Amino acid sequence: MKLYCLSNDPNKPCHILTFREITLMLDCGLSMQSVLNFLPLSYVYSNRLHNLPVWMPNDGGDTDVEGELRENGDRIFIDSLPEFCPPLDKLIDFAQVDVILISNYLCMMALPFITEGTGFQGKVYATEPTLQIGRLLLEELVTHIEQCPKANFASQWKNIVHKLPYPLNESFKPKSWRQIYNMANVNESLSRIQMVGYNEKIDIYGALQVLPTSSGYNLGSSNWIITSDHEKVVYLSGSSTLTTHPRPMDHHALKNADVLIMTDLTQTPISNPDSMLGLLCVVVSLTLRGGGNALIPCYPSGVIYDLFECLSIKMQDLGVQNCPMFFISPVADMSLAYSNILAEWLSSAKQNRVYVPDEPFPHALLLKNSKLKHFKHIYSEGFSTDFQEPCVVFCGHPSLRFGDVVQFIELWGNNPRNCIVFTEPDFDYIEALAPFQPIQMKVAHCAIDTSLNFTQANKLIKDLKPTTLVVPECYTQPPVSAPTLTELVIENNSDRTLIPYKWGEVINLPLKRKQGQIIMETEVAQKINPIEVKTGISLSALSGALTIKDNVHNMTSFDAGGENKLQKGTHYEWGLVNVTEFLQKLAQEGIIDAKVEPSGNGVMIHLQDEDALIQIEDSCTHVLCNSDELRLRLRNILMQCLKQF
């Protein structure tokens, strides 16, 4: 079994697992950190962005890059459509991938890069919410970028990365970056997905079975259990033990795995999601009371549903309930509608509301009362009419490089009464704001990440008791943000094997097939005559036709014209040689000059008169002599000392 790591970001994972001649891809996350190096895309012409000074290397050469780079403060930005860092495609041909298993909708953004134009012919499995909400995220991303086309495409800067200032000079594999796919690619890739339910067993070409279980992270998120007849591998990605809106995590099914692959732990290891949520509500409410507006960059699904609920309650408590909330996204209407028809994927508390009957999420009531309003874009019909200040605006993209959020920062950025609140943990908020500096609006960092922290992960691992634990190398060291907190690591205990890995590595996992399963015809099974060779283990000779198809082994009796290769009277020897019995039988055959000496794991018997040497070990026997006749004679005597069946 081998594991390939194709992603440099453990929170946007992409792995290849090969086992029993099956090639599985575990998630296809898309690293978006690269977009922070690009200038924001604006729906309307921006004088400020357009008039940023052009940057050139100090040596005056490399004129090819002229116009590609612009400077703002101490940062250099690329003036071009943003590019993304797709999974590594050099280690394996995507056309060889048999199956892709998707854990959650945040880990499928690279799917069109993998399935389209690569020769991929395999199958893709995901739950219904993962498919449907993933579709919304993909559509929103493509729409944001396609609505702001740029005439110029910057590429020459990639040839002088070593001359560029930080952080561009540390860009990760910039020549492998790619512009975003189009909607045709998105639709084609999504059409390949087969929807599955929790605990639904899926056969993979007869060799393996895969089964998704709830991971508790977001709607439809899954951990995957991969089993053969005698082996069990668990892929744990994006999981949460907190009580939020998704169905709780299923621990029991993950226990006692031969191999546990764990990734996508929290990106905010020193923050508590509950305290961050409380801080956000306070910051937003106080901003509104001061006559300012609150801007919350976000994805169109996920924690945003909890934000609507908690924020509306806090606004009521602080007397600012009349300030409207706006949700602006190309897929806002679909996201709100879809979240309320997914009862089977929700927590029991949310499910119970459905049977009252009532909507599981309170944002349905907020919509009815016009406390929450949704629009596709800032320029959508009706927005300017309904828009009033002070207000709360939820919109994308969290990177601040495209989407309606760019317009709101331009609109509100110079007013210190306004506030921008960062809740998504995927992007460094200081880096995200860099092209907009200097900025006057207040900034609050309230990143909410409900996935497992290190304390929860270590407790879970102890409960699951895997034989081998496989984690990204960065999880075995304290995080960069807290290098002195040595408890923020995955513990290495003696009761299991810990194997770390990093980007571009191929890891050999200590899981080898020791047993296989054969389905026998009744007539063949009736001929079994087991003989116990040791406690709990019996052997029997069998004869039949063995057929292997789709990794399933079937044994049937020979046809009438078939030949039975197992002849009557055939015996099979087993066990260890009893040296004392062997010497007695040699003496009975007239060989009485045997000299026995210990040798390694066995004995050496020297027959001086016959000039022969017999070396007996636990698993093998060697007879050295010059006479073929004597060798056969000694062999026959030796076989008499073994048990038979």
UniProtKB/TrEMBL annotation:
SUPFAM superfamilies: Metallo-hydrolase/oxidoreductase. Residues 304-433 form the Beta-Casp domain. It holds the Pfam family Beta-Casp. One of its GO terms (cellular component) is cytoplasm. InterPro entries: Beta_Casp (IPR022712), Integrator_9su (IPR027074), IntS9-like_C (IPR048660), Metallo-B-lactamas (IPR001279), RibonucZ/Hydroxyglut_hydro (IPR036866). It is found in: Cytoplasm; Nucleus. Belongs to the metallo-beta-lactamase superfamily. RNA-metabolizing metallo-beta-lactamase-like family. INTS9 subfamily. This is Beta-Casp domain-containing protein. It comes from Photinus pyralis (Common eastern firefly).
